[in-house]
Amino acid sequence: MSTEQHNTGQTGAEEPKNSDVAYESADINTRTILAYLLYLTVAVVAAFIASVFIFRATTSFVADQSRVPPPSHRGVTDALPPEPRLQGVPGHTNDPQQDMRNMVQNDREANNQLSWVDKSAGIAQIPVDEAMKIIVAKGLPAVPASAGEKKK
Q1: How far is residue 22's CA from residue 16's CA, in Å, rounded to a whole number?
Q2: pLDDT digits (tens, 9 = 90+) for 2-16
Q3: How far does the chain reach from its first CA to its final CA, in angstroms?
Q4: Residue 15: partners with Cβ closer than 8 Å, 6 or more residues away
Q5: Which of 1, 32, 52, 60 has its CA 20 to 30 A from that of 20?
């Protein structure tokens, strides 16, 4: 809004006044903002001090409540659970990763082993690679029909 005189009846010393229009003398009231910041700072510091006292009170309360267990309970929590225990828990003597490595190695050795399963029946164990080559060359063996099935 312009502050120039539009009305010849007004003097130049006064600001123009209009009953329909209102405005602020300054855009920001710094005093109010600084007061709010001061109140906020006081509130944060008070909350921090209160939290320190609450922390100390609860810590001392818990320290007072913890008692030495009776003699009948001593050593109960230190004992290990009965076997079988999960691998990797404290007190277990085996390493799970080493157990897995040993199992894989034993499986590989068993798959590549050549031995008799039942010599009198003529059943032998041969390496898996050799068995796959034999099946590719000869084909799968025929499965005999069971006694309960009907022949068509």
Answers
A1: 11
A2: 555 455 555 566 776
A3: 109
A4: 3
A5: 32
Nearest to 23 by CA among 2, 45, 40, 51: 2
Residue-wise pLDDT tens digits, 62-98: 888 877 766 666 665 566 667 777 777 766 777 888 8
CB 87 within 8 A of CB 94: yes
How far is residue 60 from each of residues 49, 53, 65, 67, 75, measured CA to CA in Å?
Answer: 17, 11, 9, 13, 26
Strands 115-118 and 123-125: antiparallel
If pLDDT is split at 50, 70 and 90, which confidence band does 117 have? confident
Cα(46)–Cα(40) distance, rounded to whole angstroms?
A: 10
**The tokens of 122 are what?**
């003529």
